[in-house]
Amino acid sequence: MTEKSNSKRYDLEDRTLAFTKRVISFINGIARTISNVEIAKQLIRSAGSVGANYIEANESLGKKDLLFHIRISRKEAKETRYWLQLIESPDAIREEQTKLIQEATELMKIFGAILEKSK
Question: What's the count of helices (H) and strands (E) in the chain, helices before strands?
Fold first, then answer.
């Protein structure tokens, strides 16, 4: 693998880590209603799983293993987007919520493109 493609791989690791940290920060700004607390638990799990599975893909034992973890990353990004759309947020952080939904969508597309190129 070339240094440039290695760099891109780790840039995506950094990007997914930053995304998860932003989600956690966002959650800290929402009201602690019964529904938000339950949604927040799911949201943290799925957002964290996006990057965790991407790291696993980078350490894969072969192409089949790599693609398996990329598919999970894409699925978790889609689930994260769902929870972000569902959670209730105050107007003060609604813009961040929209940006996080957009980032989850972009991550889904990136992982989808990786899968397409791997065929």
Answer: 4, 0
